[in-house]
Design a protein that fits this description.
single chain; alpha/beta; Rossmann fold; 2 domains; seven-stranded parallel beta sheet; 16 helices; 41% helix; globular
C-alpha cells in the first residue's frame, strides 16, 4: 500500500456486475481491485442477474452490492442505490456506463450532497453508439442523461477519439484520457484445449466478443470468404475463423445463414456436451458460443491471430487480451488503439468486406516467424502501457484533483 496518500472512500455505480455486462465486467472489476493498492476504498453498486451468484466472488476483496432491478432489467432501476449511498456516504462517485438508472442515482446523490463524480462511458457516447437505438437514447438524454453528463467533475475517455466524441456531443467538462488495462498471462504460450485433438494443420483466426451488429461480423465473414478464395488450397496453410461470444438479438442465427449463403462450411459445439465434433472441427467457420475465464484463456492460447471488425468501440479489452497472448491483431481504427498500428502489432482494416479481405489476405500471407514477431510487439505494447497497476495510479492522481483541487494533473484536458 502507498502510505503517503490519504484513503478515499469511493462508490462505483454500474449496471450488471456479472459476465452479462460484457467487457465492463472485466474492466471495472480489475480497475477497482487495483485501486485498493492506491488507498482507494472502492465499493461497487450494480444490479443482480442470473450470473451474479457465480461471478460475484471474482470481485474479492472489493465490496459489491447487487440490487434486484424493478421494471425493465436493461434500465436497472432499484432503490438500493440511494439507500446504500445514504449509509455509505462516499467522498467520490464514479459511474461506469451510461443510459441506465445508475446515471440517475449518481446525479441525484451528487446534487444533494455536493459530492464530485467521474463518468466512464466506455464508448457509449461514440457517434455510432449514440445513433444506435436513437429514439430510446433521445428520451433518456432529455429525461436524465444530459443532466448527469453535464454535472460531472471529470469525464474519463479511454482514448483520444473518445475524448473528441465527448466534445462532439457538446460536453465541456474536464476530460482525462486513461485507457483500460490488462492482466498479463504467463509469457509462455502453450496450445489451448479448445477442441479435441490437434488443429489439423490449420491456423485459427479468433473473433471474441458480443455477437452484435456493431461488431461488423457479417462483413468479417464476407471478407474471410474472399480471402480464402484468393488462397491456394494446396500450397498454403488453411485458416479457420472461430467466432466466440455471447449471442445478442439472435445475431448468431443470421451469421450462420450468411455462411450457408456464401458456401462456407460452418459448425458449432454440441449444446449438451460442449464438445466440438469432427465435422465442426473441420468447418471453415466455427461458432464457439460464450467463453469465459479458463475457457477464454484456452481459446486465446489456441489461436494464431485475432480479428475485431467493429464499427464502434470504447477500448476493447479483447484486443489487449490478444496482444497479451502474443497474437497478431487485425482491427479497424474504430477499436481506438492506434498504438497498435504504430507499433506494427496490428494490421489496419476498414469496416467493409473488401477492406477486411485485403487485411486478412496480408495476414494469411505472413510467415510463421512474421506472425510471431507481430505478436511479440503486441505483448511489449501492453507491458509498457496497459497494465492495471499503471492505470490505477493514473486514476488516483485525477481523484486527488477532484477532491482537493489545485493544479490540474498532466492527465487532464480542460478545453
Amino acid at each position: 500500500m502507498n502510505q503517503s496518500k490519504q484513503s478515499i472512500r469511493s462508490a462505483n455505480l454500474t449496471g450488471a456486475v456479472s459476465r452479462a455486462a460484457g467487457g465492463l465486467y472485466e474492466s471495472v472489476r480489475r480497475l477497482v481491485q487495483e485501486l485498493r493498492t492506491t488507498e482507494v476504498e472502492a465499493t461497487v453498486l450494480g444490479t443482480f442477474d442470473v450470473f451474479t451468484k457465480d461471478d460475484i466472488t471474482a470481485w474479492d476483496p472489493v465490496t459489491v452490492r447487487a440490487f434486484r432491478p424493478s421494471g425493465p432489467a436493461q434500465f436497472g432501476y432499484s432503490k438500493g442505490y440511494e439507500e446504500f449511498l445514504k449509509i455509505y456516504r462516499p467522498q467520490l462517485l464514479h459511474t461506469h456506463g451510461i443510459w441506465i438508472y445508475s446515471s440517475v442515482a449518481t446525479y441525484a446523490y451528487s446534487k444533494k450532497h455536493r459530492v464530485p463524480y467521474m463518468i466512464s462511458p466506455h464508448g457509449m457516447l461514440d457517434p455510432w453508439a449514440v445513433r444506435n437505438s436513437y429514439w430510446k437514447k433521445w428520451i433518456a438524454k432529455h429525461l436524465y442523461e444530459n443532466a448527469h453528463l453535464q454535472r460531472c467533475s471529470v469525464m474519463r475517455a479511454l482514448c483520444e477519439s473518445e475524448a473528441q466524441a465527448f466534445r462532439k456531443y457538446g460536453l465541456k467538462n474536464p476530460i482525462t484520457i486513461i485507457p483500460n488495462g490488462i492482466d498479463l498471462p504467463d509469457a509462455s504460450k502453450g496450445n489451448g484445449l479448445m477442441v479435441k485433438g490437434d488443429k489439423g494443420g490449420r491456423n485459427r483466426l479468433l473473433f471474441l466478443g458480443r455477437l452484435h451488429p456493431k461488431k461488423g461480423i457479417p462483413n468479417l465473414i464476407r471478407g474471410f470468404k474472399h480471402a480464402l478464395d484468393s488462397r491456394s488450397p494446396t500450397s498454403e496453410t488453411p485458416w479457420q475463423l472461430v467466432i466466440a461470444g455471447w449471442d445478442q438479438e439472435d445475431h448468431e442465427a443470421e451469421l450462420m445463414k450468411l455462411c450457408e449463403q456464401l458456401g462456407l462450411k460452418s459448425g458449432g459445439r454440441d449444446v449438451q456436451s460442449g464438445e466440438v465434433g469432427d465435422e465442426a472441427q473441420r468447418a471453415e467457420v466455427l461458432f464457439w458460443g460464450p467463453s469465459f475465464k479458463k475457457e477464454k484463456d484456452s481459446l486465446l492460447r489456441s489461436a494464431d491471430a485475432f480479428v475485431l471488425s467493429s464499427f464502434s468501440e470504447g477500448l476493447p479489452m479483447t484486443v489487449l487480451e490478444a496482444w497479451s497472448h502474443r497474437l497478431p491483431v487485425v482491427m479497424t481504427p474504430e477499436c481506438n488503439l492506434p498504438e497498435g498500428f504504430a507499433a506494427d502489432a496490428a494490421i489496419r482494416i476498414e469496416t467493409s468486406a473488401e477492406s477486411i479481405a485485403r487485411g486478412l489476405d496480408s495476414l494469411f500471407s505472413m510467415s510463421a516467424s512474421d506472425l510471431e514477431s507481430m505478436g511479440a510487439k503486441g505483448r511489449a505494447l501492453v507491458e509498457e502501457r496497459f497494465t492495471w497497476r499503471t492505470i490505477a495510479q493514473q486514476l488516483r492522481e485525477v481523484y486527488d484533483w477532484m477532491l482537493d483541487g489545485g493544479a490540474p494533473p498532466g492527465l487532464l484536458l480542460v478545453k
